[in-house]
Amino acid sequence: MCGLAGIVLGHQGHPDEQTLLAMRDVQRHRGPDEAGIYLAEGVGLAHRRLSIIDLTHGQQPMVDEQAGLALIYNGELYNFVSLRAELEALGIVFASHGDTEVVLRAWQQWGEACLSRFVGMFAFAIWNMRTQRVLLARDQIGIKPLHYGFTQAGDLVFASELKGLLAHPELERKLDPQALEDYLAFGYVPDPKCIYQGIFKLPPGHWLSWHAGEPVPLTHQYWDVPFNTDPRMGEAEASAKLRALLDDAVSSQMVADVPLGAFLSGGVDSSAVVASMTRIAAEPVNTCSIGFDHAGFDETAYARQVAKHLNTRHFEERVSSEDYDFLDMLAGMYDEPFADSSALPTWRVCQLARKHVTVALSGDGGDENFAGYRRYRLHAWESALRARLPLAVRKPLFGLLGKIYPKADWAPRPLRAKTTFQALACDDVEAYFRSVSITSTAMRQQLYSDSFKSELQGYNALSVFRGHAQHAPTQHPLSLAQYLDLKTWLPGDILTKVDRASMANSLEVRVPLLDHRMVEWASSLPPALKLKGGIGKYIFKKALEADLPHDVLYRTKMGFSVPLAAWLRGPLAKRVRDALLDGAVARSGYFDPNMLGKLVREHTEGRRDHSATLWSLLMLDAFLRRMQEPAVATPAQPPSKVSPAGSLA
To answer: Which of 28, 73, 277, 548 sits at a 20 to 30 Å CA gap from 615?
Structure first.
């Protein structure tokens, strides 16, 4: 993996080299092996490399003066060998052996149409010297990140991580009120927004181009999840196809010139990936697991069971349930507020894996592809109830019941009638939004100060879901919920979490279950093959019965999380009080101080479980404290030569 940074001027001249170096080297963790820079009239491109394939070649920026092109690229193309053969048949001669030059030549041959041919994870920028135009592109699923924005002088700047942009002294840091509302609802800031106004994330499956003098660039979508359901698909056919797709994706992603392994949690998805790797590999697979000293959050017994069953070379470490001393580090890692508490164990397992391998395969994506989350089952059940009564009847009836019925956070979800009544009063989109919101709309409205409500001007994070639902290729309740997750939760939370945690440890993580061909095919499955008899990921589990123990496949899903409620009532209680009552959150002016105090009291006294909201506010406090700090990196080496080692001229 790698780190990108670039500047395209909105006026004549050359970008400042020291600024470009700072943007590059603040991302050194993404590429500790090599660094390069390209400077020319109107443009500066910079790159940091983590060498994975073709270790002695593929230096970047890759420049071909004769073709008039310069490329910086972060990612892996898993079909680069076949693409290279196709391009060679067209008469193109290659000077290197890896996938970087394949990206360059594919764009040279096919332009933006090359994106639909790529299988992999990528974010890249190509500078066309002749047209003085830059193209930015991101992979279909959003596995690799790409941020961009404009300076006060009108220059386009872009980088893999937000910290790369913030290293530019002329980029304004002004918090976006709508992004903060999104964060308090979702626990992350969904694409294309960023926590700062005027800075954006290029959405998955999109590209943009820009030339000095043009308005803010428009993004263009080249791929979306199709959800073209094939009702003829039977169980036996689906199982066989699934195994073939899984093995093909895993096999293509096991290509590396450095040590390779896998994460193994003991859950279905990571176990499926390791089982496939075992079928393919000639040697025992390296697997890594993190355990907790809190029994309710520890899956290592299952991981050991799978490791023994598949004869892997297994590495395991245990993390204390009080391993919470890294909050400020997490805030720095994610650059904007990020409230997924599993970021901590994810960072830990990446740290463990990097001791043994440079590339690790992960099981991320199985739940989104095959309807594995518990919330899908509840949503499908509630949607069936909603379908029996028109909204005009449901809204006043269940809306009233939802208001008068007492709140019961302590009860199992099926017994929380207040939550169910509120969901039945909504349409499917709003109901699903409510189910994934970490802080309810009502609670957010109570939390916000009058001045912040005025800044929001009536904006509600529900509009994020409304916008995606408007363009969804399906209206089936289960498929629509999956689509919304694939557009928001997956890139905004899961993939962001894994990318930053892995790159902080200079580890490349690959996700075979998110090969976009697998995602396309999974979306075509009839919903009844994904959720059947109350069993989520039904067809996925059936297809793996020959490979994995039954109690691994069909045990209750635990998730990869930490004992958050206990932390916030115990060892983190003082930090929460300090942050919310007297810290950056308290002083921000965004929140009502009385409501903040009420949340702290109710949680610490055990009267309510506000752990998700309190954690999000704690991470916001860490972000706000860092917000005005400069993103500075001391160059790790003397200023790079303007003519990079990756030149093909």
So the answer is: 28
Between the CA atoms of 266, 272, 278 and 279, what dihedral angle is there, to the nearest 10 degrees?
A: 160
- Average pLDDT, stretch 167-184? 96
E strands along 427-577, which residues? 508-510
Q: How far apart are CA 259 and CA 225, in angstroms?
A: 33
Instruction: Spot the catalytic one: 2, 194, 288, 426.
Output: 2
Lookup: tokens for 443: 């609670």
Q: Each residue of 285-331: pLDDT tens digit?
A: 999 998 776 666 677 888 999 999 999 999 998 876 566 667 788 88
For residue 174, what are the contacts with CB-CB under 8 A and spacing of at least 6? 196, 197, 198
| Model pLDDT, residue 641 | 36
pLDDT at 494 > cutoff 70: yes
Q: Does the annotation mark 2 as catalytic?
A: yes
Q: How many domains does the chain have?
A: 3
- Say whether pLDDT at 631 is over 80: no
Burial environment of residue 342 by CB neighbours within 10 A (0 to 12, 13 to 18, 19 or more): middle
CA distance 138 to 75: 10
**455 belongs to a structural domain:** no
Average pLDDT over residues 486-506: 96
Tell whether the torsion through CA atoms of 620, 625, 631 and 636 is positive or negative: negative
Which domain range does residue 14 map to? 2-178+194-221
- Dihedral sign for Cα atoms in the order 306, 347, 76, 518: positive
Within this chain, do residues 551 and 575 fall inside the same structural domain, yes or no? no
